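Journal club prep — side note

Before the paper discussion, L.F. wants everyone to see what a predicted structure for a comparable chain looks like in token form. Sequence:
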Amino acid sequence: MASIGLIEILFLLAPVAIIPAALPLTGAPQWLKIAVIPCAAGAVASYVFAPLSVLWGVYCVAMAGFGVWRFFTRLEFSIEETCIDAGYAFIAIGGGWFVLSRFGIRPMGFSDKVVLLTAVHFHYAAFVVPLFTGLTGRVGLLDPAFPRKLYWILVGGVLAGPPLLGAGITFSPALEIFAAVLLSFSVMVLACLMLVYIVPAAPAFSLGPFLLVVSSGSVLASMWMSVFYAIGEFNGAGQMGSVSAMAATHGILNVLGFSLCGVLGFRCFSPCAPRGD
């Protein structure tokens, strides 16, 4: 049996809790909601028997297929829904890296930890962030005061950040720090928009406002850590310490604070139906 540490636990919260909770917010079909249960169980059980990880990898490909289907069957272009579609597409990459991690395959000589962290990255930064950006747009774009130009820029940063960061880790430290800063500041803008436009729209007598405030506050704190960590890695100074230290701070804030509280907060008031469907 493989050992399970903090990073593994944070990863497994995606298939076990966060993704199942997110599916109803995107109009996912019933078969996708049902299939997540055995496939998530396969992800957990893969730490006993690695081939079971393939179940989650296949499920992530199915999610990507649903995202493509959403995009091409929409009657009109919708920037917020396209952002959600892209998150669904990205998660297929995360599923692939998770399978590689469980089989001990190390592409380009990456360490086991980097392979797993890549899977984590594409489940959270590349799926949850586009999801929340899209859900924020669903509500915010109905408000005439909503900063539409800023939102379009935000979507660009959210969708460009994850692949650029992956490319930077592989090929260029300079690109890595640029992508980390781009993604971090994009997520901070998202958090501010959530606080200003989403929290007031949530039902007052529910946990929604509280959960969304916790989500936004958590990611505002964690993204500064990400920026300083990337700069430290680039300079060789390592200001934020080891990867394990980052997982214990940045990781917990992003997974439990931003992602879990955020998806439950959005579930409390179920943002308006998608445009263009």
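L.F.'s comment for the group: The chain has one domain: 6-269. Keep this in mind when we get to the figures.
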